Amino acid sequence: MFRIPDYVVSQRTRRAVLSRIARWMAGLGFAMLGLVAGLWSAASARFMVPNVATEPTRRFKAGTPGRYPPGHVEQRYKEEHGVWIVHEKYRGRWQLFALSTACTHLGCITLWQESDRRFKCPCHGSGFYPNGVNFEGPAPRPLPRYAIRLADDGHIEVDRSRTFHQERGQWDDPASYIPG
Ligand code: FES
């Protein structure tokens, strides 16, 4: 009977093994390509979705009005909410209102200076009266107010999704203050 020589068998075996390795490598390549494409798509999708889930809540409670005697500037909501709660006179009337801490020049965070009774911007020196009106430096307008109201439970509620601008006459809106 005819017998295939050993050297032919070993050549065929080698070819078969090499062919398998090549197929395996190609498969691995496609799998890696798929993985990279999947990760890229996931990363792209992350940028397309608004970042609402991680944003801090825009409404918060700030205790009862009794916590804020006339002339008081509350600093405890500065870090977490970017808000000064102030009990101050505006146009001769006492009001409780919530001011943004961001300077109206370029947005630096203002500091409260109790000894001088003013908000001072550390970036370019703008100054604001306790009622939020600008009086020195390059800031072009007063600090905006946020919506504020007395909730049914008697606590102050600040809503940062609504702003009120003095230069647009919006500080007359009753939603921008609690009568003091
Ligand atoms: Fe406040 Fe420039 S950012 S003075």
Description:
With 180 residues, this protein is an alpha+beta fold. It folds into 2 domains: 1-54; 59-179, Rieske [2Fe-2S] iron-sulphur domain (Rieske Iron-sulfur Protein, 3-layer Sandwich), CATH 2.102.10.10. The chain contains 2 helices and 11 strands, in the order H-E-E-H-E-E-E-E-E-E-E-E-E. The strands form 2 sheets. Strands 1, 2, 3, 4, 9, 10 and 11 form a 7-stranded antiparallel β-sheet that branches. A hairpin with a 4-residue loop joins strand 5 (111-113) and strand 6 (118-120). The radius of gyration is 33 Å and the shape is elongated. Bound molecules: FE2/S2 (inorganic) cluster (FES). Residues 103, 105-106, 108, 121, 123-126, 137-139 line the site of FE2/S2 (inorganic) cluster (FES).
Which key features would you list for this structure?
180 residues, Rieske Iron-sulfur Protein, alpha+beta
What number of domains?
A: 2
Shape annotation: elongated
Mean pLDDT: 85
The CATH class assignment of the largest domain is Mainly Beta
Beta strand %: 25-35%
Secondary-structure class: alpha+beta
* Number of E-state strands: 11
Give the helices and strands as they follow along the chain.
HEEHEEEEEEEEE
Largest sheet: 7 strands, antiparallel
Q: What is the distance, rounded to the nearest whole angstrom, between the alpha carbons of the first and last residues?
A: 114 Å
CATH architecture of the largest domain: 3-layer Sandwich
Uncertain runs? 50-54
Gyration radius (Cα, Å) is 33 Å
Number of helices: 2
What fold name stands as the CATH topology of the largest domain? Answer: Rieske Iron-sulfur Protein
Question: At the fourth CATH level, what is the homologous superfamily of the largest domain?
Answer: Rieske [2Fe-2S] iron-sulphur domain
Helix content: 25-40%
Bound small molecules, deduplicated: FE2/S2 (inorganic) cluster
